[in-house]
Write a structure and sequence with these properties.
four-stranded parallel β-sheet, globular, mainly beta
């Protein structure tokens, strides 16, 4: 990136290889919220590595997919309403350094590999979301009292799932439900406590 930039396609899918802002601090806007109707409804797929300061989305019906290694420096709210996918296999590494405070839309959150923050919240807890493991997955929010993890219903698909919010008091893990523990469910650390609000595993 040579400056703040926008990827916009209308209804067409956008596919991007690797993208970076280097040592700079630029924002990459995904689609444009100024249109109406079918405007800004194309999925955005990053097939290569992503390394940018900030990513911004708009409240339109499109999906965003990060398929390789990703680093985003600033806290990122996802306003798009057709789901988000982090990683493609167990070796994928997705880091939102300052966390993912919210995914505001509905649809599915896909998880594969590691989704990390550095002592900040990862919130995938909206009641309109379902979380679907594509491969073995780890959510690691770092180690601070702000490093809470909040998840809505998790469909593991028989994959291994690990959660780590660090050892600092206040870093609660809250999960609505987990459909199966067949692949293994591991709580590495949960500074304050773990809340499972629904069923864990097959009844």
């Amino acid at each position: 990136l040579a400056g703040n930039s926008t990827l916009q396609s209308g209804t067409g899918t956008i596919t991007v290889g690797s993208i970076t802002d280097g040592a700079n601090s630029y924002t990459l806007n995904l689609q444009d919220g100024s249109g109406s109707g079918a405007a800004s409804q194309g999925s955005v797929i990053f097939s290569g590595d992503v390394n940018v300061s900030a990513i911004s989305t708009v409240a339109k019906t499109y999906a965003v997919s990060f398929q390789n290694n990703t680093t985003v420096d600033t806290a990122t709210n996802f306003a798009n309403t057709a789901g988000v996918s982090f990683g493609k296999n167990a070796s994928s590494l997705t880091t939102f350094t300052n966390g993912v405070p919210a995914i505001l839309g509905s649809g599915t959150v896909g998880l594969a590999g590691s989704l990390k923050a550095t002592g900040q919240a990862i919130n995938l807890g909206s009641a309109t979301l379902s979380i679907n493991l594509i491969s073995d997955a780890v959510i690691d929010s770092g180690n601070s009292s702000s490093a809470t993890i909040t998840l809505n219903a998790v469909n593991t698909n028989g994959k291994a799932f690990s959660l780590n919010s660090g050892s600092t008091t206040g870093a609660t893990i809250t999960v609505a439900s987990v459909d199966s523990t067949a692949g293994g469910l591991t709580i590495v650390n949960a500074g304050d406590k773990v809340n499972f609000n629904g069923q864990v595993g097959t009844a």
